[in-house]
Each structure stands twice: as structure tokens, then as C-alpha cells.
Amino acid sequence: MAAGGLKMIQNMMEQLPASERKIAEFILENPQTVLNSTVQDIGVQAHTSGAAVIRLCKSLGLNGFQDLKVRIAGDLVKPVEQGYRDIEPGESFFSIVQKTTSNSIQSIRDSEEMINFEELERAVHTLSAAQNVHFFGIGASGIIAKDAQQKLLRIHKNATAFTDTHLVATLIANASQEDVVFGISHSGETSEVMKIMALAKERGVKTISLTKYGQSSVSSMADIKLFTSYSSEAPFRSAATSSRLAQLYIMDILFLSMATVQYEDTIHSIDKTREAIRFIKEGK
Amino acid sequence: MAAGGLKMIQNMMEQLPASERKIAEFILENPQTVLNSTVQDIGVQAHTSGAAVIRLCKSLGLNGFQDLKVRIAGDLVKPVEQGYRDIEPGESFFSIVQKTTSNSIQSIRDSEEMINFEELERAVHTLSAAQNVHFFGIGASGIIAKDAQQKLLRIHKNATAFTDTHLVATLIANASQEDVVFGISHSGETSEVMKIMALAKERGVKTISLTKYGQSSVSSMADIKLFTSYSSEAPFRSAATSSRLAQLYIMDILFLSMATVQYEDTIHSIDKTREAIRFIKEGK
DNA sequence: TCCTCTTTGAAACTACATTTCAATATTTTT
DNA sequence: AAAAATATTGAAATGTAGTTTCAAAGAGGA
């Protein structure tokens, strides 16, 4: 989407090397300046080089300086942030509902901003072309995987979603080049998912990841990287809550994009699925 | 400021020479495209030249193409639309994302409005008091059930979530009065869920339902009725999409409410869960 | 019809984003 | 502690894309 550049920078801060961090700090302090400056300008003003600016853009997962510029421009016209609010003991039902609503919406909005359209497009095409899609996630992410599988099956795309590592390993060991492995892990550091991604990579099977925004083991192994907003999980100890909504949201976008690309086919499949369900249910 | 590019173009329209007007029209129709295209690209796509794009920028009183780009980026960050919008064939990725975002947010907002706080409170107390919670749903709702189970287990509440009707039937047949059966069905007319609810009722086991808003077989059998917004599913044939988010959202509220009611215990449980996971992972 | 003023796009030009690379710092290994 | 491997850095080279120029074509007026 056309915003979120500043948030991306904030989230990446700690993971950046010195020169890029200088640039990052400069930009956070002078976002407006970025819009009217050249890469070299910014480099000099932040007491480092222009190359560092480009490197920062790449570190953020963006395609280049133009991309960053556009996202920052978006940030500058946005109304004030809502932000996440944690839930505290002895809170009323009313305010729990309010906070949950606003946190949920916020995590969807933030994830929207993180979307890299080119990456999304590549994901859609890769999935559309795949013979089989193997979703894999553990715990909460395993549920997202199951959900995604159900969706793909609905539009006639073969998909698996197991949570047994050994089983999946066997599956991938025998997978064809036409298959795609889709690893889901909010933290991006779930060891099971990492192993599966590594195996897929080694076997030359295409991989897609869905993790929180930022550098992580899982995403760095993936050919195509999709992200949910980083902060989703941050504030409440209350277990994976918003992050799950955001993951589903991204999956919805993927699914709907695939469906749109092959619209006619899809409508047909969904209708047939409905018929099949009705048939089983009502026997007619 | 960093916006208003599109409005500028609209205002200038009549005063523009043919070639620039072609560009102007193209931009108004494909503002998103502008952000990822070069001047030459746009020239060609609008059946004229790149030079015309620059001339348009100058005619608008801007300093150049970058300036226009930044302003259009600002324009595209508009507040979310109200209402549901269906997704159509040949839609751009950009607008799929926009519509999915607004539909998702809308379904959460609408579900918030549907909440009956008294019913919510009863649900929370019933669940908190339960010895065992049996979640049950088929298909997409089965995933919500699994998710809910995971959440409850995290806070030390026994919960099951099977999709096998016979298995669940046996479970309920042997359930104690301290148990709760939680039926999930978006339509409220899934026959398997209806049967389970009926069985629970007959056995005198407490029941909670989560369905779309309105009268339905499942909800009418439940002691406590929770709802998601009706319209969630309405507009797109594109399979259960927003409805699922809304269901999760309601579950989040339930979970967080339960967690708040027994805050200290919960924090403790979550920490213990984390420790357990870390232990398994890292062996320390 | 001829002249003047405007518009147009191809090509030349220029500026700036991006890549490369050698030097340097940092971490890991032995 | 030394050596090797790895990561970081900015200056310079490169390539891409924005901008300007200019000759040709078109529009309007005398």
C-alpha cells in the first residue's frame, strides 16, 4: 500500500547496521525532507553515504528509493495513529470490546501498509501456477495453514496442511518442481518451519513465507516473502490475537487475488462446491 | 503538503492541450499505476509521449514528475470506505487489497455493534465456570473451533475441538453438567452442529452458539447466543472470508474477557505455556 | 495562401538512483 | 592471539529514468 514507510523503519531499527541506522534516524526526524531530496543529499545530511540510503530501502524489503518516498508521502498525510492498547486487569466488558475492536482494526490497517505489491503479485502467480501447495505452520499458525488449505481446495487447487513435521518432510522430499511450500510462522523463528523451508530450498521447491514484518530466519529462506504488521503481537501478553487476524487477512487477499485472476473458473468451482455440500446435506 | 495531486489534475483538465489531457485522464483512471511506472511508461500507456507527462507536471505548477508522484501517493491514503464491496473480475491488486481491507474492517465493526453485553457476560461466566468446553464446527467453522480450543488451553481451561460428529456425540453423551458445548456455524443451519446442540440440550448440558445475526436453528437451541454481523458473508461469492474474521474477533473478545476476569491466573498460565514451549524448543 | 503561434514526440542530455568494488571493520574459528 | 571468514562501508562507475531541446506538424488568423 502507499504508506507505512516510517513504521517499517521503526520496526527495522534494531536490525540495521550503523550506516543504515544513521539514515533511518535522519528520516524519522525529517520525513518531509526526504520527499525533496536526492539519495546523495540524504546520505550527506545523515553523515554517511548515498549508498546507505539504497541499502536501507533494500533492508526494508522495498524496491528502491522511489518506493520509500511514496510510502513516506503516504504517512505524512495520514490522520493520527490509533495505536495498540493493552488490556488490563479488572477492565469492563465494554472497554475490552472497544480495545479488541480497535486493536483488530489496527492490525489489519498496519498489515495493509506493509504490503509489497510486486511480491504479492509474484505470490499469486506462483500459487496459481502450482500443482500442489503445501501449507505448514505450528500452533496458531497451523490453524491459518488449515484455513488456507480449505480456501484453495474450494477453488480447485490442490493443497495440503499438516502439522506433523516428519510427514511434511516426506511430502516435500517427494515434491515436484511444480509444487510450492508455504511456511507460516508469526515470529519467523519456529524451528519446525525453518527446517521445512530449508528442506524445500535444498530440494529446489519454490517457497513462500508469511511472517511478521522484519528480518527472520523463515522469511530470509523464502523465495517470496509476505508480511503481517510487526506490532500486531507486541503489546498484549494475551496470546496470539491480532496477529492471527492479520494473517487471515493476508490469506484472504491472496485467495481473492487468485480467484480474480481466474475468475470464471473460480465461480464455477465455488458453485460446484456448494452443490456438492448441498447434495451431501440434503441428498438432492 | 504532500497530497492533492489528483484534484489538481481535475481542476486543470479543461485548460490542457490534447496530449497532456490524455495523460491526465490516464492518471485519474490509474492513479496507483503512476507510482510504479516511469514517465516513458505512462506516456506510452496513454498513447502519447513521456514528454507530455513532464509538461503536465509543469502545467500543474509542480516541479516535476517526482513531485506529482508524491502528491498522488498522498491522495491514495484515504480513510477506509464504509460498507461492503464485492470483488469483480479483472480487478487490480490494489483495489482487491483496498476492498478486502474495508470489508474486513466493516465486518468487525458490524459485529461489534451486534454485541449484547449481558449475553457476553453470561457467556464469559459460563465458560469460566466450566470444567470442559467442547467446541464444535464443520468446515470453516471447524477452524474457528480449533483456534478457540488452543486459546482456552493456553489459559488452563480444558477444551476439545473435534470435527467428527460421532466422536463429539459420544463425548457429549458422557459429558458432565459442568461442561459446556459451544456450537459454531455461520449459517446457523449446519445439520451436524444442530444435532450436537440438540443432543447437548437433551442431556442438560449448557450450550453456547456463535452464528450470524438472526434467527437460526442452531442459535434457537442455545442457552446463550452470540452473533457475528449478518452481512459479513453477504456480498461475495468468494467463500467465507469476512465472516471468519468476525468469528475470530468474537472469540478474541471472549478469550480476553475470560483472561481479564482471572487476570493473575492467566498471566501465570501464559508464561508457563511460553516456558514449556521454550523448553521443548531449546531444551533449557 | 502565407505567416505566426502552439503543440507534439523523438532524440539528446542530464541528473540521480543503483551497482560494483576495494578497503576496512567485525566476528568466528583455530 | 592469530588467522580466516564475514559483514560493512563509501567512492567511483554504471545504468536508468526524468528533463530539455528541437525540428516537424498542426491550428488559427490575416
Relevant terms:
60% helix; five-stranded parallel sheet; 284 residues; DNA-binding; alpha/beta; Rossmann fold; homodimer
Structural summary, described in words:
The structure is a homodimer of 284-residue chains. Chain A is α/β, with parallel strands linked by helices and 284 residues long. The first copy, chain A, folds into two domains: 5-77, Arc Repressor Mutant, subunit A; 114-273, Rossmann fold (3-Layer(aba) Sandwich), CATH 3.40.50.10490. Helices cover 60% and strands 10% of the residues of chain A. Chain A is built from 14 helices and five strands. Chain A has helices at 5-12, 18-29, 31-35, 39-45, 50-59, 65-77, 93-114, 117-129, 140-154, 165-173, 191-202, 217-221, 242-261, 263-282, and strands at residues 132-136, 158-162, 180-184, 206-212, 224-228. The first copy, chain A, has a five-stranded parallel beta sheet, with helices on both faces. In chain A, helix 10 (165-173) packs parallel to helix 11 (191-202). Chain A is globular. The model of chain A has no long low-confidence stretch (mean pLDDT 84). The structure holds a DNA duplex (30 and 30 nucleotides).
Mean pLDDT of chain A: 84
Oligomer type: homodimer
In angstroms, what separates the terminal alpha carbons of chain A? 46 Å
Helix share, percent of chain A = 55-70%
The share of residues in extended strands of chain A comes to 5-15%
The number of strands of chain A is 5
> Can you tell me the CATH topology of the largest domain in chain A?
Rossmann fold
Domain count of chain A: 2
Compressed to H and E, one letter per element, the order of chain A equals HHHHHHHHEHEHEHEHEHH
What is the class of the largest domain in chain A in the CATH system?
A: Alpha Beta
By secondary-structure content and strand pairing, the structural class of chain A works out as: alpha/beta
Overall body shape of chain A: globular
> In terms of per-residue confidence, which ranges of chain A show pLDDT below 50 for 5 or more consecutive residues?
none
